[in-house]
Design brief:
This protein has about 210 residues and is mostly helical. The protein is built from ten helices and no strands. The protein has a single domain, classed as Hypothetical protein af1432. The protein binds adenosine-5'-diphosphate and nickel (II) ion. The site of adenosine-5'-diphosphate has 13 residues, from helix 7 and helix 9.
């Protein structure tokens, strides 16, 4: 493994060790694996993809006090300190800035192929069986209800409204998780997403059936 990747991996592992299950080191590692899998068919610079996957949640707005731009600067500073060549560091920082989902009514920012691959890889980890587990882990960490039939989903029109929402976890499926299949940009991720999407629909149908027997 090249020295740069190894250093970044060790830093990220240390930073994410004590995170709650939806955003811990294993999430980062699954995103990296998903991204490198997509890269095998879609192409793109594997070093940029792996660095961006490792660093995509390095300064997440959910955990840094709500700053959407901090990730770009922190990642650029970190890679510069580690003597990463400037063109690579810039690409990685730009990708990190556009990965995050910002609401049902907020379009994804345009990005290079490597950015599409990392964004798709992060979103694959938000759906399917792992996606369901992550959603309830995050919801639990925020003391959210599993479900509350009195509170309907909101299709947020701004990143601020999305970030401030405190609804129950079943709503998150309608506000994000079920929308991700149609937001995938690479055909490889679209194929993987189809089966994971169906699995979530089956889960939701059974959940509702058990809630309202
Ligand atoms: P991104 O990684 O694109 O910034 P989010 O901020 O929406 O996306 O969150 C990443 C993951 O954290 C989600 O896929 C989900 O598992 C969990 N999560 C975030 N917000 C919620 C929420 N309101 N309810 C349940 N899970 C959530
Ligand atoms: Ni992520």
């Amino acid at each position: 493994m090249p020295a740069l990747l190894e250093q970044v991996e060790n830093l990220v592992k240390a930073k994410f060790t004590d995170m709650e299950g939806s955003h811990d080191w294993f999430h980062i590692d699954r995103v990296r694996k998903n991204a490198l899998l997509i890269q095998q068919t879609e192409g793109g610079d594997a070093l940029v993809i792996e660095l961006a996957a490792l660093l995509h949640d390095y300064s997440d707005h959910k955990y840094n006090g709500g700053d959407f731009d901090k990730g770009y600067h922190e990642v650029l500073d970190l890679l510069t300190q580690l003597q990463c060549p400037a063109p690579i560091a810039l690409k990685v920082a730009q990708i990190v800035q556009v990965v995050s989902y910002k609401g049902a009514g907020v379009a994804d920012q345009a990005t290079i192929l490597e950015g599409k691959i990392v964004r798709d890889a992060d979103r694959l980890d938000a759906i399917g069986a792992v996606g369901i587990a992550r959603a309830f882990s995050y919801g639990g960490s925020k003391h959210r209800a599993l479900y509350n039939p009195a509170i309907s989903p909101t299709l947020h029109q701004s990143k601020e409204a999305y970030a401030q929402d405190k609804g129950h976890t079943i709503n998150h499926f309608y506000e994000k998780l079920l929308l991700l299949k149609d937001r995938m940009e690479t055909s490889t991720a679209k194929q993987i997403a189809a089966q994971r999407h169906t699995y979530m629909e089956t889960f939701l149908a059974q959940f509702m059936q058990e809630w309202n027997p």
